[in-house]
Amino acid sequence: MDKNELNEEEMRIWNMWKGSFKRIFGRVVKDMSENTGLSEGDFGVLDRLVQFGNGKLRQQELADLMDWDKSRLSHHLTRMEKRGLVLRKPLDRERGVEVIITPGGKSALDEALPIVSKAIRKHFLDQLTDQDIESITTLAERTKTRSSSSCKET
Known about the structure:
Blueprint: H1 8-36, H2 40-53, E1 56-58, H3 59-66, H4 70-82, E2 86-90, E3 97-101, H5 103-123, H6 130-153
Antiparallel strand pairs: 1-3, 2-3
Helix pairs in contact: 1-5, 2-5
């Protein structure tokens, strides 16, 4: 068998991992959306604005943090602006646009955070043993390090 091909067991493990993540993530997003009206994208934008920019970021930096292309983010921000969650303003001295969380956006994020935390605990963390947490942490650190170094090589 070619080194680049997966055998049945490897494919089964990959599909289990991927499916488990999608189910857990989907349940967390569903709980959040049903209780707050925010979409996954809304929450991601608001959370990153606060977490990485103290409430404001350049639009390109936000796109990079979201791992979204400029067009996708621009369309999403337009919808969020209409709902009063963010605003955009051109930068005075340089090219680019700054995205700013509004008081309404901050309030929506503050309302969503405990709901998201509860959902993560319910659908993920409460299912884990201490050994599971240790294994997941080790795996995440190892794959992050290896993925980062392989991305730099290409």
